[in-house]
Write a structure and sequence with these properties.
The structure holds two protein chains of two kinds. By secondary structure, chain A is of the alpha+beta class. Chain A has helices at about 25-30, 80, 85-90, 115-120; strands spanning about 5, 10-15, 20-25, 35-40, 45, 50-55, 60-65, 70-75, 95-100, 110. A seven-stranded antiparallel β-sheet of chain A has the order 5-8-9-3-2-1-10. Chain A has a three-stranded antiparallel β-sheet with strand order 4-6-7. Chain B is about 20% helix and about 30% strand. Chain B has nine helices and 20 strands. Chain B has helices spanning about 15-20, 40-50, 70-80, 135-145, 165-170, 215-225, 235-245, 270-275, 280-290; strands at about 10, 25-30, 30-35, 55, 60-65, 95-100, 105-115, 125-130, 150, 155-160, 185-190, 190-195, 205-210, 230, 295-300, 310-315, 320-330, 335-340, 350-355, 360-365. The interface of A and B includes residues 60 and 123 of A.
Amino acid sequence: MSTRYTPDHEWVRLDGDTALIGISNYAQEQLGDIVFIELPETGKMLKKGDEFAVVESVKAASEVFAPIAGEVVETNDALTSDPEKVNASAEGDGWFLKLKLSDPGEFESLMDQEAYLAFLETI
Amino acid sequence: MSDPISDQTLRQTPLADLHRDLGGRMVPFAGFAMPLQFPSGILAEHNQVRSAAGLFDVSHMGQVSLVGDNVEAVAAALETVTPGNIIGLAPGRMRYTVLLGDDGGIIDDLMVTRPSPDNGERRLALVVNADRRDRDLAYLRQRLPGIDVKLHDDRALLALQGPQAAAALERHAAGASDLRFMASATFDCDGIACQVSRSGYTGEDGFEVSVAAAELVSVARALLDEAEIEPIGLGARDSLRLEAGLCLYGHDLNETTSPVEADLGFTIAKRRREEGGFAGAERILGELRDGPARLRVGLQLDGRAPAREGAEILDDAGRKVGIVTSGSFGPTAGVAIAMGYVEPSAAVSGTILTLKVRSRDLAATVVEMPFVPHRYHKKPA
């Protein structure tokens, strides 16, 4: 399984025609302690760039945008009671949702890890 | 994500380098570069202050002296623009008060101290909000003829807060732990002269320590060497004061809010209610008599999702009855909490209201503040 990233600091991990999606470790570091995450309903259709989640840190609310189009087939309900999982494991247990991809080809247009790490060096 | 801040345009406190050495994430605040948090994070810092002790750099706040022919004359002058019993302030005591405009709006909220020992002191000492400092200075100079309004830019200020603050401070400033809540005195702190008061902005027992700016780093380093004490940033300062039900100027207070609306009736002294004679007395005494148009209330939400400043407050009929002025997850409260202004009919404790957060409706109950009980060092009743 390979993981791709967006300039908005989301990650996408492809598995067949579905993908797990979350925010990067860099993003959770920037946000600080996360106290609440608002996730979409399953069945929701997302277009690339749609706001699909809101992450509340102690200090502020931040929107998360869909890195890729698809239908929400599962959300990480554990984040409702334990949003700090995202701080502890942003790119593992802290995943946000699973999408059934509308166009798996979009995945290839995202940055691979090497490109993302290089991108982080520039900001 | 936010851009790195341009330090050139921001003022630095004497601890700026120390904050950076400690890994502080610096943000602009009231024209200063201040630490939002340190590497342990806001939640850990919040819990540190509730369980042990934390050190805050509050040097951005304005330290001001009002100097006159005698302290009674200064107190009488200050009473013309505040509703407090300033004349009755005993030497070595301090009080929270509000600076009022002629329309009864709050220009700033501040601490006023009558210095002790009373060896011919002819002044009162104020600590004012950084954001309001220039406004306050201009207003005080305009409204207090014959009083010299001095800004002490050469002074800096630390806050040491938490249940273990007194024991830790005592090792450096012998006798400081004997101070009562809202008392102030000078102490020798490892050879450095400090003005120490038992006060703060967290709801916990604690102290504020005023020291010459040039000595600040050495005092801060000595305190941070204590095992109980960790550095605390602005993020935890905000969550702590919110749980304590304390107002933040520019959010919960502004020049349109009166002390009656802000539920700060305790700042309006009994004698002043009878005598009046302060800026805005007409409105304020009228609101005490007839009730204000709106009231600041505490709001406890049902879950962790916070409502932020600006969220609309609706009643059970869906009618807008107010607006949130501060809100966050309360780490000690364990739920999201907020304060805001509502119509008096909606201000009764136990009222269920709805907060509009994005597309969601969050249920909230009007509750008495503080959200987390104060633990001040008061004399047993």
